Amino acid sequence: NPASDQINLEILNPDKKKLLVSIFHVTGHLVYAESLEEAAHITRNIKLPSGIYQVVLRDCFDHITLKAIVN
């Protein structure tokens, strides 16, 4: 981090849980959302304009929040 023009997500999901990924701009606007398939390894390359983003990964029990910067 920082990224050049996209966020590369690589998620290891050994329990094959259904996941929801949401990306919010620093202003609070939702810019990306996807329900991810139940797979052990998931890769996504998401193009975004310059800015600061919050990446939220959720399953039915928990969530993880990460900060990402795109130049």
Short structural description:
This protein is mainly β and 71 residues long. It has no helices and six strands.
Structure description:
This protein is an all-beta fold. Helix content is 0%, strand content 62%. It has strands spanning 6-12, 19-25, 30-36, 41-47, 51-58, 63-70. The chain has a four-stranded antiparallel β-sheet with strand order 3-2-5-6, with no helix packed on it. It has a two-stranded antiparallel sheet with strand order 1-4.
Q: Runs with pLDDT <50, length 5+? A: none
Backbone shape: globular
Radius of gyration of CA atoms, rounded to a whole number: 12 Å
- Give the oligomer, counting copies of the same chain as homo and different chains as hetero: single chain
Distance between the termini: 9 Å
Beta-strand content: over 45%
Structural class: mainly beta
| Main sheet: strand order | 3-2-5-6
- Helix fraction bin: under 10%
Query: What's the pLDDT, averaged over the residues?
Result: 87
Chain-wise SSE layout:
Blueprint: E1 6-12, E2 19-25, E3 30-36, E4 41-47, E5 51-58, E6 63-70
Antiparallel strand pairs: 1-4, 2-3, 2-5, 5-6
Question: What are the salient characteristics of this protein?
Answer:
71 residues, two-stranded antiparallel sheet, globular, mainly beta
